[in-house]
Design goal:
Elements (H helix, E strand, L loop, with lengths): L16 E5 L11 H11 L12 E4 H8 L3 H17 L2 E8 L4 E7 L2 E6 L6 E6 L4 H4 L6 E5 H5 L4 H12 L5 E5 H8 L2 E5 L2 E4 L4 H19 L2 E9 L6 E10 L15 H7 L1 H19 L3 H14 L1 H12 L6 H11 L27 H26 L1
Antiparallel strand pairs: 1-7, 2-6, 3-4, 5-6, 8-12, 9-10, 11-12
Helix pairs in contact: 6-8, 9-14, 10-11, 11-12, 11-13, 12-13, 12-14
Length: 392
């Protein structure tokens, strides 16, 4: 970081909007409420027309006022906040690496540099890690947004995380998430260095009481949405496997102007995914039956289906079907995970005990995915046409 610090920049207010790529809602990291608020405060300073990140100067007095924090305490914590946000790991799954053309797990941090004044001027400056450009600059597709004040008034780190996740799925109104995935989303399962993760509130009852219910209560009391959930137990077990959330808009008790869902071709396409959810269930169900998958394995396939699309899953099923394999279920999961290609002979998984695939007519399984792809292409064409009409 070079040059002199900029003396002042326009600071966010109550109605300033935070824009983020959908992938950031599912990233893994561990930050305190104060650290999360600082990150979101800085993100809200990014202008829609910005081509690149710049140095962002945070006025401590303004930040403290908006976050309802003690200014004197913040002055003392500036260095710790800056150091923590540089050193704490941020993990983004399925990051596209343009150098290799592959989706990888990105391990980075929120801030790359920070300048801290020690003379009581009341501000400090930061630069956002350049790896976050695809997720924060000119975000026009696959995004969610909310007003900064909605999270600045929250006290629980879990509430801030769950609120962002809920805003990401607000258009769908309902979302089923596994307990394991939810732990990562809420920061109860976070990076611990050397590729390992650390679990907080390992007992489900504690996780539900101290993280989920606490977050839901605060979100319902202070924000522009209302959350409720039901527990979904594993088949033939008393163990809770997933939580089925309902997300509903509501009047803002703080009197802050609420933010409507954006009306753009992208959002129109996503709103139509209500019907696609049924097709998704059918396609995943067909894969589950075809390859004798367990519930956990089927959910893993569903994850690839959502992240990489029906075409990717169909391609990997074709690779697996191209030769006989001792364990088709594990072979399919390996093909999805390691991106097996038709041009090379992928290694067969060897563990026994799983059912082998029954004969199937050519195209019977892939037809379900082809139908999905055709529907999505048609909707994209309609959305592009609508966008062209709006700008012509």
């Amino acid at each position: 970081m070079s040059g002199q610090i900029v003396s002042w920049q326009k600071q966010p207010g109550d109605n300033t909007v935070v824009w983020q790529s959908n992938q950031l809602a599912e990233a893994r990291y561990e930050l305190s409420p104060r650290e999360q608020k600082l990150v979101l405060y800085v993100i809200s300073m990014i202008e829609p027309e910005d081509e690149d990140f710049k140095r962002y100067v945070v006025n401590v007095s303004d930040f403290a006022k908006l976050a309802k924090l003690s200014k004197s305490e913040l002055y003392k914590e500036l260095r710790d906040l800056a150091e923590n946000l540089k050193s704490k790991v941020l993990v983004i799954p399925n990051h596209f690496d343009p150098d290799t053309g592959k989706h990888v797990e990105l391990v980075t941090s929120w801030f790359s540099d920070a300048l801290i004044t020690a003379n009581g001027q009341g501000y400090f400056a930061v630069e956002i890690s350049r790896n976050l450009k695809p997720y924060l600059l000119k975000v026009k597709r696959e995004f969610f947004k909310f007003r900064l004040q909605q999270v600045m008034q929250m006290r629980s780190a879990y509430a801030i995380r769950l609120y962002q996740f809920a805003k990401r799925w607000e258009f769908k109104r309902k979302y089923l998430v596994s307990v394991t995935e939810l732990r990562g989303i809420m920061g109860a399962l976070h990076p611990a260095g050397r590729g390992k993760t650390k679990t907080a509130l390992g007992n489900y009852a504690d996780f539900k009481r101290r993280a989920v219910q606490t977050a839901v209560d605060e979100i319902n009391a202070k924000s522009d949405i209302f959350l409720s959930f039901i527990e979904v137990k594993a088949k033939g077990s008393k163990a809770v496997e997933s939580l089925d959330f309902t997300i509903a808009p509501r009047a803002n008790p703080a009197g802050i102007e609420t933010l409507a869902l954006p009306v753009t071709p992208q959002m129109e396409l996503e709103l139509e995914r209500e019907g696609d959810a049924i097709e998704e269930d059918r396609a995943v169900g067909a894969v589950k039956a075809r390859y004798g998958l367990s519930e956990k394995q089927a959910e893993a396939v569903r994850g690839y289906y959502r992240r990489k699309g029906a075409e990717y899953v169909a391609e990997k099923t074709a690779v697996v079907d191209s030769q006989k394999r001792p364990n088709v279920a594990q072979s399919l999961l390996a093909a999805l995970r390691d991106d097996w290609q038709p041009s090379r002979r992928a290694p067969a998984a060897t563990p026994a005990g799983k059912p082998k695939a029954e004969p199937v007519e050519p195209g019977e399984l892939s037809g379900k995915f082809e139908a999905m792809k055709s529907a999505v292409r048609g909707r994209r064409g309609s959305a592009d046409a609508a966008s062209g009409n709006a700008t012509s």
